Amino acid sequence: MEFIKLTQDGHIGTIVLDRHRKLNALSHDLVAEVIEALRQLEEAGARVVILRAQAGAKVWSAGHDGGELPEGGRDPLGWDDPLRHLVRTIETCRMPVIAMVEGGVWGGPVETVLACDIIIAGPCATFAVTPARLGVPYNVSGMMTFMSAASLRLVKELAFTASPISAERAERIGMINHVVPAPELETFTLGMATTIANNAPLSIAVMKEQLRVLAGAKPVSPRGFEKVQGLRRIVYDSHDYHEGIRAFKEKRRPAFTGN
Ligand code: YXS
């Protein structure tokens, strides 16, 4: 595989994001390799998976691949978007997925990390929810992922400011499980993976699916869903969305007008 490294040691699988030149930006091809790796690990009897970046990474992932975002007139995060596929695969695979985070996590990868079952971060890890930075209308299930991970007030702060928060703060508010000193991060993560792998895989797989079904059981009426989708269309049909994506691709600050 070109964009990840896949290894398995007994019942523990490890997927390392390895698209170094683009700071592990989640492109269609990188996501396809992660999804295939999860399928192979499940088939090979892995009982837990560690999803991580390269050792010592300054950026865990720089976001959805901006070069693959549509410039307007189409939902940028629709059902078939690679990021949506990746989140659904992590949530529905039988094995618990532990996100081991070093470095900055930007945009869609924050949701990817939050979709993982357990999050263990080094002290330099940060998390930035960036739709407002680009003018993107985040999608419904993604917002529910954020709402499951943090209080509504904190989700609003993350979403409206698009500013990174520290691993220490994320742990303090319960958004991530542990912050561990960098030299101990790998050992600590492997220790937890080993504990999980030594427990009953069927019981764990069923509890993981139970928790997914129960956590996702939030009543959104068809009318409510249609209203949200209509509001999102206003955004991705707007000048600001087009401007945000163009500015991102041209590496300049966007000039948002509110239209
Ligand atoms: O241009 P070259 O070939 O040198 O490659 C550069 C960047 O273009 C590339 N790169 C990316 N490519 C595609 N998609 C990305 N998201 C992306 N981010 C970076 O990586 C190479 C090195 O980047 P550079 O020079 O900026 O590195 P740096 O060390 O100076 O800065 C690191 C970052 C992460 C602070 C900086 O790259 C950055 O701010 N990246 C964008 C972070 C971001 O806003 N991500 C959100 C993407 S949109 C998304 O995820 C969702 C749609 S949403 O926003 O709704 O959540």
Cofactors, ions and other ligands in the entry: (2S)-sulfonatepropionyl-CoA
Largest sheet: 6 strands, mixed
Q: Beta-strand level of the residues, as a percent range?
A: 15-25%
Total E-strand runs: 10
Q: What value does the average pLDDT take? A: 96
Which structural class do the helices and strands define? alpha/beta
CATH class of the domain at 4-183: Alpha Beta
Per CATH, the superfamily of the domain at 4-183 is: 2-enoyl-CoA Hydratase, Chain A, domain 1
Walk across the major sheet and give the strand order. Answer: 1-2-3-5-7-10
The CATH architecture term of the domain at 4-183 is: Alpha-Beta Complex
For the CA atoms, what is the radius of gyration? 18 Å
* CATH fold naming of the domain at 4-183: 2-enoyl-CoA Hydratase, Chain A, domain 1
Describe the global form: globular
Helical fraction: 40-55%
Q: What is the end-to-end distance?
A: 43 Å
Report the total helices: 11
